[in-house]
Specification:
147 residues; alpha/beta; Ribose 5-phosphate Isomerase B, Chain: A; binds D-ribose
Length: 147
């Protein structure tokens, strides 16, 4: 599995730890930045990571900012992206089983690095359920044009 990862300054330290952990587990991780704790805009990294997933260059994306909210709002603007904001292990599994989320967002000011790594592990290890009702619901997301 190829994983694109990104963060703003608020998520920089969490990103570094998650990247190291997933790389040690054998995943191919590409770091789209940011590369320091200097102030920056979450939007730019959300778009880079989301586009790399929507284009199928990468299988999944992980984005971390202070709350995870800005990253999820921005990533969900990209066609084909289902970004899930997750701060617990139950939701990490459920959003893969039910939503086939292809981007995980987390808030570094909400959860510590240890929990963020556990969430990332559950999220990358859980496959979509492929159940008909979930396929139907995802299709409704994909086909909604917005107004
Ligand atoms: C940056 O201060 C902060 O606003 C950002 O990391 C994120 O929480 C936005 O949603």
């Amino acid at each position: 599995m190829k994983i694109a990862i990104g963060a703003d300054h608020g998520g920089f330290e969490h990103k570094e730890a998650i990247k190291k952990h997933l790389t040690e587990r054998g995943f191919e991780c590409k770091d789209f930045g940011t590369f320091s704790s200097e102030g920056t805009d979450y939007n730019d990294y959300a778009i880079l990571v989301a586009k790399s997933v929507s284009s199928h260059e990468f299988d999944r994306g992980i984005l971390i900012c202070g709350t995870g909210v800005g990253m999820s709002i921005m990533a969900n603007k990209v066609r084909g992206i289902r970004a899930a904001l997750v701060h617990d292990l139950f939701t990490a599994e459920a959003t893969r089983l039910h939503n086939d989320s292809n981007v995980l967002t987390m808030g570094a000011r909400v959860i510590d690095i240890e929990l963020a790594i556990k969430i990332a592990d559950v999220w990358v290890d859980t496959e979509f359920s492929n159940e008909e009702r979930h396929i139907r619901r995802i299709s409704k997301i994909d086909h909604y044009k917005g107004e």
